[in-house]
Amino acid sequence: MNFTGRPTTRPYDISFLSTASTPPENMLQNLPIRRHPSSPRVGDLVVAVGYPQIELARGPAPTLPTSITEGMFAAYGVVSQLHPEGRDRSNRTPVFEVEANWPSGMSGGPVFNAAGEVIGLVSRSIAPADGDALGTAWATWLAASIPPMEPVSITWPESVDPGDLYFRRAWAAVRLEPWGLEGFPTTEQEASALASNLGNGFRARLVSQRLGTETFSVSS
Q: Which of 90, 85, 98 is nearest to 134 (CA)?
């Protein structure tokens, strides 16, 4: 990533998966994301959602179960520590620490604040020791993944179209005739630079894309 001319590299404990076929459009929806560093705070109540109860099996095919069951699980927790620079030198992903029992298998699930906004993703957890009521868990801290830089405070750009939550909105280099669309830069300035490099009628425009499809709408 590069902000205000200065390169910044941040590690992420996040994986991105894609499918061979496009899922049905009614399966694709957005969750509200809290992008500003004011959330969470120590003492805040959070809740994580995941699927720790998926049953896996190994062995010869004839002996395996004919179906796989799964169950959604939700667990509350209280934020106990903030680690904007990571837990240590070998784990530098920005995380917040939570007193909670988040079972193994919830990794990657969203973590919500009290307002119902996604503020993180379950990263890992340690089960409670004997006699302890709660274990310890960590969540990738979304807002802290892009640190503020002086003199400009960086926050995540809007990526959800307020007019239709099934669409994401971003800057791109667009040519209307013949149709062409290149890249999704972070800012209008980057989109303008890309359009200038491409030439041939490309301009920086705000584009909305229906999630999981090649359907676009372009601002005038």
A: 98
Which amino acid does the sequence have at 117?
E
Burial 162-195 (b: 16+ CB within 10 A, else e): eeeebbbbbbbbbbeeeeebeebbbeeebbbebb
Residue pLDDT, tens place only, 9-66: 455 666 666 677 776 766 666 677 765 556 788 999 999 998 766 666 667 767 766 5
State the pTM of this model. 0.58
Q: What contacts 5, CB < 8 A, 6 or more positions away?
A: none
For 140-199, how does the pLDDT look when each residue is reduced to its tens digit (9 = 90+)? 888 776 544 433 343 444 566 666 656 777 888 999 889 898 887 778 898 999 999 999
